[in-house]
Amino acid sequence: MSTSVHSSRSPLIDAIASSVHILTGSTDDHDPLLKLIGDARFVLMGEATHGTHEFYRERARITQRLITEKDFVAVAVEADWPDAYRVNRYARGRSGDAGSEQALTGFKRFPTWMWRNTDIVSFVDWLRSYNDALMSHVPAIGFYGLDLYSLFTSIDEVLRYLDKVDPEAARHARARYACFDHFEEDSQRYGYSAGFGMSPSCEDGVVAQLRDLNARAADYLRNDGLEAADALFYAQQNARLVVNAEHYYRNMFRGRISSWNLRDRHMADTLDALARHLEKANGKPAKIVVWEHNSHVGDARATEVGAQGEWNVGQLAREMYGDETFLIGFTTYDGTVTAASDWDAPAERKRVRPALPGSIEDAFHNTGIRRFMLPLRGENPAARALSDSKLERAIGVIYLPESERRSHYFHANLARQFDAVLHFDETHAVEPLERTARWRTGEAPETYPSGM
Questions:
Q1: Does residue 448 register a pLDDT over 80?
Q2: What CATH number was assigned to the domain covering residues 11-148+265-441?
Q3: Contact between 242 and 155 (Cβ < 8 Å)
């Protein structure tokens, strides 16, 4: 471990500085982290924002080493199942897409910059090259989505599958899914109408469709082979997504906690289904990397929102897999970020204000160390010093600096929330493939707090 060359200003700063591993950008930067990860099968890597270049880049670097050195076989991300599966097909050499950018065109829903950005293109390029070089008997590395927003796209994918394998079943599925037809592919409109009793719920039909698809699975696998099994699994997960998305949208106007819990339970269950599918396909337990926001990856039981009743993927993974799970958070002090000012608004390159005094990011900044990895599992001075609850920042796809404390901070016990944290003191906005004029120019110079 390395110690800070700067004088510390408190016992907390001292404890952090004495426990960190400094990141220099070298190829062996992550040796200590990989040693901590050990034999974990599920490595969940977060991000303090949905639009920071350093987070995307570093997660990719760590993932590449987990794939090449620790036999990880899949990357599962906070993205919709059908959109990510198109990338999966391309990365495994099973699609007609001409390149990574084309494979990523399935990501059309706001916020597109989360996956249609230059860092993701670089990673998918690497993944395709790595898979192309594998021996024919070695399973290719996959890329999968865990989220549930793709209600109508997933309906289309279920129908597309059944049209090929069972046209009669496809006819019945269309009749069931027709319940959604008059909502013009507007999921929230359906949720509002069904949730408040203004129209019938489609729940019974989508549940029946999933049940029928699963009941006929053996028949659909008459032509044995990996591709047949993959196609069935893809369809089954789309049908399950429709069930959970219908439930999610029908409940989204009834309270944040219930809708959050439905979403994260779906993502955790999708991760588990993926692990079981890959274990069956490859003949050994699957090892999977997960990329999501810190708010999904860090154990909710260590946060104030957990005390209010929320759970998340990190908590559920720990409960399901125990020590086979390793949770990594990412933090920043200031810089720029790609984010919007409202839902469905254009992407902007925004200035990130310096972290609030008393926050964990402020403590990291005051070590004077610009980039580091801090281990939190086991006994070390930092884990003990961070055993109390502190402010922690979370920037999603919307960043509202004018309401910084209310919109973007919550209390968390970092030592219980994560097994390790990577901190980058100054960070930069991830570069979208579609750059708006506002993104190119960035915001006007920040004059807060002087007003000058």
A1: no
A2: 3.40.1660.10
A3: yes
